[in-house]
């Protein structure tokens, strides 16, 4: 695969959806025109490389790596060192063909593959724009729709090459769109050095699992699964397992595939990079296609000689490690075993000492109960062995975190009293995500109440929608995967099967122009905020894709500090401003010192 950028091929806005959002208004000129990035399948293609300098040698290497056949076009000047040593050896071993002649127009149409009538598939001019032949070749190629690249001459190129990092099947390409290849290369190096080792192998392994699961289950790929576009998850990603029987059977077929998709989404990269053959077997042997995996049974009661350990349920906050409490941080450092929810982000998992075993919940839509049971059983067994077990939960453990259920389970299984079950609060996403999106949930004279709701009830059923109160801010968790239904319930009378529309007669509906915001991955580096209205939010999510976890905030508080932009149906804001500037090295470093 060769990574290329077609310069200025399409005027792109900062986000694809913003174009749609602005469609009604005057067309927006992008601040910086960007390229269409693509991975080209070049296997068997003919690449014509004009010139024989060291750059030509590099182009030949890239071309060969992409499976193409490079032809070097340069007259032989008879000097022994005309070709770089590496290039000479490729010519000698036949992998590069050397046409010893000066360029003639006909070369473009004769040296290529038979299959395409002899036309070459791409041309690389390595001598630069000052060579008068460069602009002639560029023009000729453009006229004949042959992709052409002239070194250091963006205006003569129809495509440019990216600065790439390659590790097995993994390729990462960076372009600054002509602002400087040194800069692009520096950025690429920074990105690649931040990646865990063996990520390429992991991609190969995970790809293999995906292929085998697909083969075994005949799993139908979800929308967006077979492309690698960066629009985030399709709206179906977090779809719950249907409640009806026949739907359930269909859903079972895709169970392992969805588990795999969630592993890729939620496991820390370091963990993904170390995925081993045993993980492959575990995934393949889990969740058979015909029935739900049997639920694990609680471990036998302990022998009275082993003193009980302790279970700590702790909230890890919305994502940024600085938002951990000192108590939770200390629990992370001292626990014997950590059982983490899948939403606990990698920077927090990175704080876990190497010696501490960690298990991440195998929760994915439709499997939450089984995964919860699995964690209960593991935790109980360890507590009975006298261990201190940390159940690390995202946000606050008692805000839709099933924290109460867990406490009850341990009590019922004999782990209770004094400090056997300890619950530590966490910063909940329900209140901190609005803050990070500059939404003042209880702004005086605007909102005198905040309601935290779930968008998804038990077994995937819709909960009763909260009615409109002008001075209310509503935060919906676990709601974005069914945004269309939720908006209908909030803004339209309910269609009831039994004709009971009492609820409809008394329930006040939310106006479609109520401001709202979708906040995803709050406090993480890839935080995203979409500001819009109830009338347009479903369309905005559909267009922008989803980036779980995310929540919806509704009410006039959304527009206190941030007004809507005139003429735009929605606005997308990327990135988290970060706490590091505020905390400096205090924050986490200090927390570590205190806990040490
Ligand atoms: N106990 C958690 C909530 C668990 S329910 C807490 O107090 O935050 C899971 C839901 O929380 C997700 O579906 C999403 O709606 C929300 N959520 C969790 N983390 C989030 C984050 N960083 N940004 C936005 N929403 C988040």
Automatic annotation (TrEMBL):
It catalyses: uroporphyrinogen III + 2 S-adenosyl-L-methionine = precorrin-2 + 2 S-adenosyl-L-homocysteine + H(+). Keywords: Amino-acid biosynthesis, Methionine biosynthesis, Methyltransferase, NAD, Oxidoreductase, Porphyrin biosynthesis, S-adenosyl-L-methionine, Transferase. GO terms for biological process: methionine biosynthetic process; methylation; siroheme biosynthetic process; sulfate assimilation. The keyword NAD applies. It comes from the Eukaryota. Residues 310-537 form the Tetrapyrrole methylase domain. Residues 167-193 form the Siroheme synthase central domain. Residues 287-312 are annotated as: Disordered. The keyword Methyltransferase applies. InterPro entries: 4pyrrol_Mease, 4pyrrol_Methylase_sf, 4pyrrole_Mease_sub1, 4pyrrole_Mease_sub2, CobA/CysG_C, Met1_fungi, Met8_C, NAD(P)-bd_dom_sf. Residues 246-290 form the Siroheme biosynthesis protein Met8 C-terminal domain. One of its GO terms (molecular function) is oxidoreductase activity. Siroheme synthase involved in methionine biosynthesis. Belongs to the precorrin methyltransferase family. This is Precorrin-2 dehydrogenase. It comes from Sarocladium strictum (Black bundle disease fungus).
């Amino acid at each position: 695969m060769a990574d290329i950028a077609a310069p200025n091929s399409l005027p792109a806005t900062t986000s694809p959806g913003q174009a749609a959002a602005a469609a009604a208004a005057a067309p927006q000129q992008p601040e910086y025109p960007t390229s269409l990035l693509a991975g080209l399948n070049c296997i068997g293609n003919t690449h014509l490389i004009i010139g024989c300098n060291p750059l030509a040698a590099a182009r030949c290497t890239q071309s060969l790596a992409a499976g193409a056949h490079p032809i070097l076009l340069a007259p032989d000047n008879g000097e022994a060192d005309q070709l770089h040593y590496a290039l000479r050896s490729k010519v000698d071993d036949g992998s590069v063909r050397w046409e010893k002649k000066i360029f003639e127009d006909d070369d473009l149409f004769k040296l290529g593959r038979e299959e395409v009538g002899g036309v070459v598939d791409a041309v690389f001019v390595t001598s630069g724009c000052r060579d008068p032949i460069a602009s002639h070749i560029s023009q000729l190629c453009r006229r004949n729709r042959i992709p052409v690249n002239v070194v250091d001459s963006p205006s003569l190129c129809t495509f440019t090459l990216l600065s790439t990092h390659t590790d097995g099947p993994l390729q990462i390409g960076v372009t600054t769109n002509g602002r400087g290849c040194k800069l692009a290369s520096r950025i690429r190096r920074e990105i690649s050095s931040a990646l865990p080792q063996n990520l390429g192998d992991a991609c190969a392994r995970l790809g293999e699992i995906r292929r085998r699961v697909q083969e075994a289950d005949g799993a139908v790929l979800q929308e967006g699964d077979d492309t690698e576009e960066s629009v985030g998850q399709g709206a179906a990603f977090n779809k719950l397992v249907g409640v009806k029987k026949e739907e359930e059977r269909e859903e079972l077929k895709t169970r392992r595939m969805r588990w795999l998709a969630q592993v890729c989404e939620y496991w820390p990269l370091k963990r993904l990079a170390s995925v081993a053959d045993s993980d492959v077997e575990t995934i393949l042997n889990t969740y058979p296609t015909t029935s739900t995996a049997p639920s694990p049974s609680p471990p036998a009661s302990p022998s009275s000689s082993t003193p009980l350990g302790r279970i700590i349920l702790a909230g890890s906050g919305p994502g940024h490690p600085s938002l951990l409490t000192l108590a939770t941080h200390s629990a992370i450092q001292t626990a014997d075993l950590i059982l983490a929810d899948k939403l606990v982000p990698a920077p927090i998992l990175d704080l876990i000492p190497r010696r501490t075993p960690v298990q991440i919940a195998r929760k994915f839509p439709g499997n939450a109960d089984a995964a919860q049971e699995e964690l209960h059983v593991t935790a109980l067994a360890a507590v009975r062995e006298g261990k201190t077990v940390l159940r690390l939960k995202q946000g606050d453990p008692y805000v839709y975190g099933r924290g109460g259920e867990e406490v009850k389970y341990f009590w019922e299984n004999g782990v209770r009293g004094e400090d056997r079950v300890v619950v530590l609060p966490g910063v909940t996403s329900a209140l901190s995500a609005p803050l990070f999106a500059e939404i003042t949930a209880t702004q005086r004279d605007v909102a005198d109440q905040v309601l935290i709701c779930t968008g998804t009830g038990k077994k995937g059923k819709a909960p009763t929608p909260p009615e409109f109160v002008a001075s209310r801010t509503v935060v919906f968790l676990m709601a974005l995967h069914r945004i269309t239904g939720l908006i209908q319930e909030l803004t339209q009378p309910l269609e009831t099967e039994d004709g009971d529309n009492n609820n409809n007669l008394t329930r006040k509906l939310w106006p479609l122009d109520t401001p709202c915001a979708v906040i995803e991955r709050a406090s993480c580096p890839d935080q995203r905020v979409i500001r819009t209205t109830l009338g347009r939010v479903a369309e905005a999510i559909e267009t922008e894709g989803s980036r779980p976890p995310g929540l919806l905030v509704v009410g006039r508080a959304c527009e206190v500090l941030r007004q809507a932009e005139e003429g735009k149906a929605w606005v997308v804001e990327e990135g988290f401003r970060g706490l590091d500037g505020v905390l400096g090295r205090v924050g986490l470093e200090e927390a570590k010192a205190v806990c040490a």
